[in-house]
Structures are given as C-alpha cells and as structure tokens.
Design brief:
homodimer; three-stranded antiparallel β-sheet; galactose metabolism (chains A, B); zinc ion binding (chains A, B)
Chain lengths: ~325, ~325
Amino acid sequence: MSERRFDPTTGEWITFATHRQNRTFLPPADACPLCPDPNNEWDGEIRRTDVQIAVFDNRFPALSPTPPAPDVDSDELFRAEPASGRCEVISYSSDHNATLAKLGPERISLLVNAWADRYQVLGSEGHAYVLPFENRGEAIGVTLHHPHGQIYAYDDIPARPLRELRTAAEYRTRTGRCVNCDVVAAELADGRRIVAESEHFVAHVPFWARYPYEVRIAPKAHTPSLVAVADEARDDLAGLLHRVFVGLDDLFGFPLPYVLGIFSSPLNGEASVAGWDGSWDDISHLHLLISPPNRSATKLKYIAGTEQMGGAYSTDIAPEVAAATLREKIPQS
Amino acid sequence: MSERRFDPTTGEWITFATHRQNRTFLPPADACPLCPDPNNEWDGEIRRTDVQIAVFDNRFPALSPTPPAPDVDSDELFRAEPASGRCEVISYSSDHNATLAKLGPERISLLVNAWADRYQVLGSEGHAYVLPFENRGEAIGVTLHHPHGQIYAYDDIPARPLRELRTAAEYRTRTGRCVNCDVVAAELADGRRIVAESEHFVAHVPFWARYPYEVRIAPKAHTPSLVAVADEARDDLAGLLHRVFVGLDDLFGFPLPYVLGIFSSPLNGEASVAGWDGSWDDISHLHLLISPPNRSATKLKYIAGTEQMGGAYSTDIAPEVAAATLREKIPQS
C-alpha cells in the first residue's frame, strides 16, 4: 500500500506507505546500510570503498515515481490517489561517526552542491516541490545513526511550504515586497537575534521562533533556490553552515538533535495555486530552518496539546536570550 | 515575559511564556501538586482530602487574563502583543495512579460535564476559542503523571481549528452540507474504520489518520459543542469514551500515551474570519481526537522532516488495519 488520502476537514493530504513498517531500525554499526559495503557483505547501499557525498533512492520510500493504485475506492468525500513522487537518501560521509561540524566547510560545500543538483534534476523529472531535510538524533526519531539527510520530491506543494507561499503572495500583493527580504533586513537592522553572518547569508533565531534554539538561514538578497546561488556564494553558505553546526553541537556539549529543512521555489505548476499571478520565483525566498527540540541539555520541547491540536506553538525561552547564548557558541568568523 | 509574536511568513502566532521554564517537572509522588494536600504540606493545588474532578488556573500559564506588555517593540512586520487568554488544569481524580479506563464511565460523565461547563464559562468571559486537551505519557512529554488534562481559552481562534473551520465553510458553500456530518455518515456506511459506536456517537479511525491508532469521536447529528449535548447523550458519550480508553490501554498492555483534543464551535467573534456569513454553529461539528504516538509497543511515530517541515504526514499502517486491531480491543458494549 502506497497511497495518499485527502482529509476533507483540513484540506491536507496524508501518505500511507505500509512497506515502511519494515524499514531498517537502528541497525548495529557493522550492518549499517549507509556504510561502504564494497563486497556486498550486508546488502549495503554503497558498493564502494569510500565516498564523500552519495545520493540514492530510499529503499523504503513514502512516495515513488510508479506507485500502485490505491487500496480503497475513491469518491468525492474520501479521495485516495497513488502516492507519487520520489524519496532519496543523501549520505554525508563514509564515516559512520562523522558529523557535519567535524566534516568541515569543504564537505558542506559539496553537500550544498548536491542539494542544488538534486533540486534541479528532480524538478526536471516533473516533481512540483523538492524538500531536502535532515532528521538528526534519537530524540526526533532517527532510525539510522549514520550521518545523512533525505530529499522528498512531492508531486504537489505540501501544506507548510504552500502556507508560506500563500502568505508571501498576500504580503507581496499588499506591500509590493518579498516578506523574507523584509524579514532579513529587519533582523539585520535589529541585530539582537543574529547568531552568525557571512557575506551573502545571515543566520538568526526568528523573532517568532517555534523552538527555543531554532536557527533560520537565508540569503540577504532575493534568491529563489540554491540553483540561483553562485559558486562563490555556495562556499560562503557552506562556511556559515559549518559555523552554525559547530555552535549547535557546542551548545550543550553533545551532537544536538534537530530537524533541518530547506525551503525553495516550487519547480512546476502555476503560482495561482498560492494566489499569485506572477512566477513562483517572485514569492520564493530560499531559507534553511534548523529546529532542535531541546529546551535544555536534558529537557525537550514536545509538540503536544496546544501545538498539535491547536496549531498554536508555545515556548519558554525568549528568542533574544537564545540568540545571545548561541552567539557565544558559534564561531564568529 | 508573556507575549505572543506574529510569524509574518506563515500568518501564525507563537506564544512566549518564559516563567514556564520553571514549571514543575516530574515531581516525586509525595510532592505531586495535583494530589490532595489538605494541610498545605507541599504547596499542592488541592486543599481538600478528596475530590472527583477539580478545575483550577494553571500556575504556569502560557496565556493569562491580565498579561504584561510585550518585552519587544512591535512594528508592522514584527508584531508582538500581550499573550491574553486563560489556562486551566483539570484533575481527573485524587488518586495519583488512576486512569480514565480505571475510573469508569461515571467519572468520565462528570469530566464531560466539567468540559461543557468550562467551555460555557470561559466563553462568557469573552474568550474566542476553548480547547480542552490532555497530554498523556512521557512519550509526549508530560511533566506531571497525575491523571489530568488542560483547558486553553484563546482570545482568537488558533491555527488548526481555524483551518478546519475555513475548510468546513468552503465545503458548506460548495455543497450546502456540513463536512463532518458527511464524514460521520460515510464512515458509518463503510464500517471498516468504525472502532466503537453508541446511540448518539461514533468512534472511528479517520480515513486520513495522521497517527496509526488515531481515534476520532463525533456525534452522529450536527452538534456544535458539548453544551448542545443533552444530559442523557453526555452519559452515552462517557460510556463510549470509557470503552475507547479501555481498548487503547489494552492495545499494547500499558497505558497508551496520547494527545487528546476537543474541537468545538468558537464562542466569540464573527464567522466571516473563516469565510462564512452565517453563525459559527453552522460550520462547527463537535469532535474529539485522540492521537497516540505509538506505531507499535516499542516504536513511536515522530513528527520530523516531512511532517514538521513539509506539513505532509506520512504513516505506515492502513487505517482499516488499525481499526480492525482496535475493534478487537475495545469492548463493543
């Protein structure tokens, strides 16, 4: 079963991929599917002795290019469709115990290029929205410890990016400006929530952070996706990202769990879906969001009652205080 | 600091309540703030020897009726407001180790009446939306084990209920019908996802369940809130809820963690906010949602990459299969 179903009470789609029940769950280090397995000793994904960055199809994909027909009948109220799209895994290193902080800016530069490359290729395959993300740490439920991320290519724009695009379209219609350009300029002018800066990018705790130590990274100039970032500016971003990862791991003295997501311009479909009559690029401003669940070294913020049922986030650390703490931990050059 | 800030990139408000950093965290059983403390030996909330259901203000509220002015200046882009509203705690029992399954239908009937009463009283105080919820189990981050729930009274309609109301308004405009009435009728007609039923209510795994063992309970007839449920039907609901709680705790043989939420009609403000020109009650159909994070006895579903960043839920158990399992566990009368 690999299908998506429509929730007629919220207008959102939910994906069901029952084969994922059997996905690899915290395997022992000597049978890690992401460690190099040149002689195919444990059915690993990487048949080489060494790799830097490797991208391949997820063996247990939630979305696939050729999904089967849905299990249930579809009608006007209860709509079911094949779960089409593509799910990839992106390994950051051959070393099972590496971290992005330890791998350094050059490897992160390669990773930025890989994200940009897959964004472009998956767009050319016709997918509507490409979301690279990383789930890191058992606190947010990783099933493989090997340093890696994922890339989901959706065949329509998923709910959260769509909400951002609709909000950006409204803002642009009302003011003539890009909301993310205005946010970046306002954060730079205020300064209290900036945690690191490079020539082309800025890293800040958002004024409205949903997680105490949330970090948002965006280009200073209007840029729809990584593809529009020049080579030199990609290295600049990699250097900034590296400093942020070093600081996050230094915050409590252990590799900080987080969810990372990269928000870019949609690749197919009309911007009228978001209420905009121009191009997607007009209302899309690249940003990376890193959301660690920790509110202290030993306590996590949970998405429970008010967040899950209300959609109303509540948090207990002021963004200005969190930013001051992070600024101390993040190398400033 | 007790303020809310607007996220101009999504149009949502986030609450900051820094005093909540010091909230009581998993206290020892002999200093539980919800256990009866008639002689005020440990500054407990309940100065009686015994109570059945007790409701009182949360000592560490995210929202309060008289919040201070925000810490930061507000401008057109970065808006900050006092975090006004009210947060209550509702204790289910004097017994620290009780569960709703063990307390039985009569106590749950009292609880249903307390939810209805607080909904009405908090509405008469002028709050816009009343959300009773329960966070249960360390897996979803409870800080107190004593059986209890919470009630948040928001001064505007929070994001998720607002999304449901807007979707219901669109559906009603398009079809002339209530989407939740149609969902209940369709689930009853299909039958595969029904897990329990009473005279006036039905419990089902939604066709679009975001969590594997999610249970949704709704009145068969259009009913905007618990206040509109007659006494006899409240007892009927309590009996059904009791059976569901018994079944959930029997599913894996331990008290199942979950987040429970009760969605009702807004109490103040105009329905035009949701794109509807009639009354809130026209587009509001009471429903309770119970979302357990477990996908098995030992594995949890985490809200990570695709859910958190994409807003696109992905799950790995078919709702029809989960419903069949639950139906075996839930007493059918």
